Amino acid sequence: MSESRADSPLRYAISVPPHGDYGDPRFLATLAEEAEEAGWDGFFLWDHLAFMRGYAGPIVDPWISLAAIATVTTRLRIGPMVTPLARRRPWKVARETVTLDHLSAGRLILGVGLGYPRDSEFEDFGEDGDERVRAEKLDEALDVIEGLWSGQPFSYSGRHFQVRDCTFLPRPVQRPRIPIWVGGYWPHRRPFRRAARWDGVLPGRLSLERRRAWTPTMIPVDQYREIASFVSARRAAEPTFDFAIGGYTDGDGGPADRERVESYRTAGLTWWVENLHGFRGDLEQMRRRVKLGPPRI
Fold first, then answer.
1. Which pLDDT band holds residue 189 (cuts at 50, 70, 90)?
2. Measuring CA to CA, which residue among 272, 107, 261, 128 is closest to residue 173?
3. Cβ(138)–Cβ(93) under 8 Å?
4. CATH code, domain carrying 270
5. Does residue 58 surpass a pLDDT of 60?
6. How far apart are CA 143 and CA 145, in angstroms?
7. What range defines the domain where residue 201 resides?
8. Is the model's pLDDT at 182 over the cut of 80?
9. E-assigned strands of the chain?
10. How much of the chain, in percent, has pLDDT values that exceed 70?
């Protein structure tokens, strides 16, 4: 589990889509190796089946890709950011996550959320795209996964999922559990109430997702401080919790990068997650950004 915000240094990760130019599991493993060599602390993959309607490029499975990444790295924290649990079977996820946790020697972080978009990722495959239904499934799935991680006999009776007296072994390497980060779009409050139950939060911004002409904008610092305050006020007394954000830096090591990161750190940030994707630049540009290393302050 993560350290308390007061005691831990800011950590830095790369976030990569498993599609388009990145739709090659061997390349993703190589890129993760390069990220580790460059001093990054984490390497996270988006989790998509189809991405967007009309998209016809390559997409690889993030979970199998993460297994490959786990075998070629030794220090990076890894995980899906985020996996839509509403279209997964929680008992299968419980098995997959524990296996990855053992394969990586306790380096897995499980990022979860509702998923996006509802049509191409849910409805086109016959899944219910209604946000309330997906939210119910997400909450139930988290309860099931935590129960199965316990290594004790576990039963569950929910609206969407049922488990009858099952014991899953081995337990995760990490104690008390594999960290769970919850994604959500601010200013919606329910995802952030959910996040307060678990181990971390990765907020997104609705306006960014809906732009046609992409520009590298982020949640403003004052809004991020509001998010951190909202979640912290709903946390129990445990000191361990991670506040992450998807961000963008030039990677030149200049003061602008350091000032940007520092402003979010003072607002509560514990993980800076550098977003890489085709909207931002071509593959070689993004690869150079990885090799330049994190914007440490």
1. very high
2. 107
3. no
4. 3.20.20.30
5. yes
6. 6
7. 11-292
8. yes
9. 11-16, 42-45, 77-80, 83-84, 110-113, 154-157, 162-166, 180-186, 200-205, 242-247, 271-275
10. 92
